[in-house]
Amino acid sequence: MSTPTTSTPSPTPASRLRTGAGTFLANNGALVGLVALCLALFIATPNFLTGPNLLNIGIQASTIAVLAFGMTFVIVAGGIDLSVGSVAALSAMASAWVYSAAGLPGGLSLLAGLATGAALGAISGIAIAFGRLPSFIATLAMLSVARGLTLVLSDGRPIATSPAVSFLGGTLFGIPVPILVLAVAGLVAAFILNRTVVGRSMYAVGGNAEAARLSGIPVKRVLVTVFALAGVYAALAGMLLAGRLNSAQPQAAAGYELDAIAAVVIGGASLAGGVGRVSGTLVGALILAVIRNGLNLLNVSSFWQQVVIGLVIAVAVGIDVLRRKNTRH
């Protein structure tokens, strides 16, 4: 005697639409939020969606976005880097110092800044991978060391940058160079994460470092590479900032590490590691820049701007926690 089989009803077009919309929002919530934010500010102030103001937003976002691209590598690999702001300042200062004091050509001074960032990041990575220090502690120590060395190198005074670094704050064919650097740096970061062995290893290490090790991934080498890359991106961000100011400032980029972390988390990365996209990080950096720009246009106090940014970060982290809970269940 055969038992009747029950067929599962096929989903209706309405249910498929709801499912598709839910999936889209889950994967692109930050982008939807950015569009909604821009529309709200356009309604609130007609000066928002103008060419000069949009270029201004792009320039403002460029430094944080480049810094956050490097932070994306770290967070995807399951770490955190509190030193990127200080590394940015020291790298820019080193670049300016070798040009003004050592007399190196401008191009070499630019390379010296990038090499400084890579070396500082690699030192943090070695302390974490081989010294077994938590990334929070290792990079907190580097934050203090790098900022102190910046003050020692500059004697607490600004140093003029080389023409190569000053060029980073100018324009090329009518387009601000920081925006061009932002685009190139983002494409390179996306290529590293999505198209290279080390990029795929970052996701594996961030998802489960022990499982990655048992799979034959050189976890320690990956961690050193991750923090060295973050140092390079921090150095580039520092020189972008110095190029806009035409000088390397000893207190430059103070607190920028928090904005970089916020941009990555707002963009959908998980602080637990193993999840993150460069495109999401870019959207997160743009959200922070748009909020600050819009509040400035609305004449909102800078004190209240910090409150708003803090609330946005809290909401982004809360969403990440809920997403991870739903994934486990």
Automatic annotation (TrEMBL):
Superkingdom of this protein's organism: Bacteria
InterPro entries linked to this entry: ABC_transp_permease
Transmembrane segments: 20-42, 54-76, 82-101, 108-130, 136-153, 165-193, 222-242, 263-291, 303-322
Recorded topology in the membrane: Multi-pass membrane protein
Keywords: Cell inner membrane, Cell membrane, Membrane, Transmembrane, Transmembrane helix, Transport
Pfam families to which the protein is assigned, alphabetical: BPD_transp_2
Subcellular location: Cell membrane
Protein name: Ribose transport system permease protein
Source species: Isoptericola halotolerans
